[in-house]
Structures are given as C-alpha cells and as structure tokens.
Amino acid sequence: MSKVSAIDEEYIYEGSVIISQTDLKGIITYANQKFCEISGYSVKELIGQPHNIIRHPDMPKAAFARMWETLKSGRVWNGLVKNLRKDGLYYWVETEILPIRDDDNEITGYIAARKVASRKNIIEAEELYNRMLEQER
User: Fold this and answer.
1) pTM, whole model, 2 decimals?
2) Tens place of pLDDT per residue across the chain (137 aa)
3) Which of 76, 121, 69 is nearest to 94 (CA)?
4) Phi, psi of 40 (to 5 degrees)
5) Structural domains of the chain ordered from first start
C-alpha cells in the first residue's frame, strides 16, 4: 500500500464526474476539466499520453488485463480503480468504461466516467487487489 495519504475526495469531487476518452490503444484523446483538477495534470499534459499515466503502483496488472479483455470484446467494464495524481497523492474512483463505435459498429475508442468510490467499496477492493498483487509476485 502507498504511504502517501489520499486526497479528500468529498471536497475535490463536489458531485462532478471525471470524463476521459481514449483511442484503441488507451491514448488519451479527451479529458474534462474535473479530470484535470483531480489528477493534477493539465489537458495539454494528458492529451496524447497513455491513460496509465495515472496508474497507481498498487493496482494489479491482472485487473487491467481483465478490463482490456472486456472492452475489446465490446462490453462495458465497471470497477474500482486507485489512481495516482501528478503530485503523488492518490484517489479511488468507481469507473465505467464504454466502447465507442462508428457507423459500421466498429470500436474506435473508449469513453470513461468516474465518480468518488465509497469507503466500503474501497476496503473491499484493497483486499482483493492485495491478494492479486501477492499472486503477481
């Protein structure tokens, strides 16, 4: 677990939703203002970067492998994610990612919406992710 304390989610979110969009490889093509505020990065710093720029080292690789498997199959993915801010603090989000499709129904990218995660869900996710990280070692 990270030794850096979490940001005060209740204060920083203020009811807003973080939105980002990526291409098929996970490169950020859009980031709303709330994403910038919470992550600590500017839009200019985020656009063109892999979304894993905010990946926290406490997140198991297997969690993202499952996420990509789900998305590439054309399904919606939901889950809790611990993200790393530019300043080293972290934040937990409930995330929903949807494939973006063109007129021919081909997946052209992904759009994600995130909101503050509940304490109960964070505790459950931490326990699961810790077990997954142990298996990866």
Assistant:
1) 0.84
2) 343 444 444 444 445 899 999 999 999 999 999 999 999 999 999 999 999 999 999 999 999 999 999 999 999 999 999 999 999 999 999 999 999 999 999 999 999 999 988 899 999 999 999 999 999 88
3) 121
4) 85, 0
5) 16-136 (3.30.450.20)
